[in-house]
Amino acid sequence: MATIAETSRVHPNVKLGENVVIEDFCIIGYPPKGYDSGELELVIGDNTIIRSHSVIYAGSSIGQGCHIGHSVFIREHVEVGNGSSIGVNCIIEHHCTLGENVRMQGQAGLCEYTTVEDEAWIGPRVVTTNVMHPTCDRAKECLNGPTIGKRVILGANVCLAPGIEVGADAFVSASSMVTKSVEDGAILFGNPAKKVSQVEKVKCGFDMVSESPYPRNKEKLEQPQPQVPLMDLGAQYQALKQELRMATDRVVLNSRFINGKEVGEFEQAFAEYCGVKHAIGVGNGTDAIVLALKALNIGAGDEVITASHTFIATAEAIVAVGARPVFVDVDEVRFTLDPEKVAAAITENTKAIIPVHIYGQPADMSALMKIARENNLKVVEDGAQAHGAKDDGTTVGQWGDAACFSFYPGKNLGAYGDAGAVVTNDDALAARIRMLKDHGRDKKYTHDLIGVNSRLDTLHAAVLNVKLKRLNKWNKARNNAAAYYRENLQNIDVRCPVAAEGVEHVYHLFVIRTADRDALQQYMKERGVATGVHYPLPLHLQPALAELSYKRGDFPLTETLAEEILSLPMFPEITTQQQDRVIAAISDFFKDKGA
Ligand SMILES: Cc1ncc(COP(=O)(O)O)c(C=O)c1O
Question: Considering the entire predicted model, what is its pTM?
């Protein structure tokens, strides 16, 4: 039951949770311009208090256990996370997103499209701004509010410039004007704000959630916890949504959905990222391999050596060009092609090797390239899971004749649908792939080759341009999460993945090994922790490839891996609390088993 003061007006279609309190003279669910009363929903979570004289528009949602102070004004399309507190006289304009346990002190103002992440503290009279091009007559079409990272502290009267990101844990002192993005944990001062120190050096150790004086947070902590997902694309979207919306809106406004300028921009940026001359955007990662093999003239009668421990796409592409996949076993450390076994599998028909940089770790490329050179074989790297991974300072994509990437949404660099790319240093090969992926042409209606339609869509390229800038930061966050798992799983009876010496792993997946895999997976599921198995049936045992006449026992390590591997939740935004739940579930499983 909610308690609503008689002087307040609650419009239709307002969903009030248990124990919501609405004090005097509030207007709740006010219809935004162009909408009728009750047309848009407004949700207010359990145990939230709305003090007197506040106005909250319809089309927003306020979490559980929030405290909305006196005379607060909240527009439509605003999300306020659980346990947040909005001080007296604050203004939150439309399309703002606030995470959980955010604190906004009195008279602070968030302009449209501002994002505030969990536990940020926003001092009195802080303002954010969003007009990127103030003198343009279309200025309103490209508003871009700042992003205030997790646990950021903004002192009184801080002003944030449009579109900047204030990194997690940063501290901005009172009255600073912040004109540029701020790195994680930086301490800033002045106008324009300059970095003066790093938070770790002066940290007082106060925990804003568990030591908070607000009893409602404690209630929140006792609520049932949501699932820990295997990956969380929503979390990534929350952090980038303004920029993504602007980027995709631009494509829609220009209507260049095919071969728009964003495609060229992405191809150039991705080639630079990989440290190669050419990147050719294509429809997906599978097509990338098919096109690379075709352009290298690999086809009927040819053999291509690859791993059985990979996703079906690698072998599918070989079959698609009419060649025969020849599988070999993987090595114990990297779970990728074992060079000795590759050498032993070469016949007079062998034309190419496809090393798969599985889970984000490069294959042993110096050994494989030596074998390829000695035997005059082409090398096509399958980098679908390893954007940005390195070995001895060389980036995935730089070794082979060509390297193929998938931008499937869940990959380290993911589009919003299927997308892929081939990268190469070979000018002629690049030109051929460019023609093959676009109906075999380089002029509008003259087709020199029989090609396919497998272009990178402009909308995907626009999304990838926004995301590519963050890829290194995300790969670093994955490494930090991997280190945390490793440190906290060391006394538990599971085997953690190992990065070979000199390797910069990018942990597309964090895959542990245990002989009790199925039981552990089920136990974790019951504890609300999602896991995956990549992959449960090796390719040499797949029904679709039965014609190749492989049998169980052919690749012992690959087969053992398929029975023992378990992928734990892994994504750049994973929190320590989520990882602790994963670790506790694994630890409890083995304790229960021993008991
Ligand atoms: C190792 C590997 N190769 C190739 C692919 C194929 O990529 P796509 O799904 O974009 O076709 C994938 C995708 O999951 C993969 O993991």
Answer: 0.69
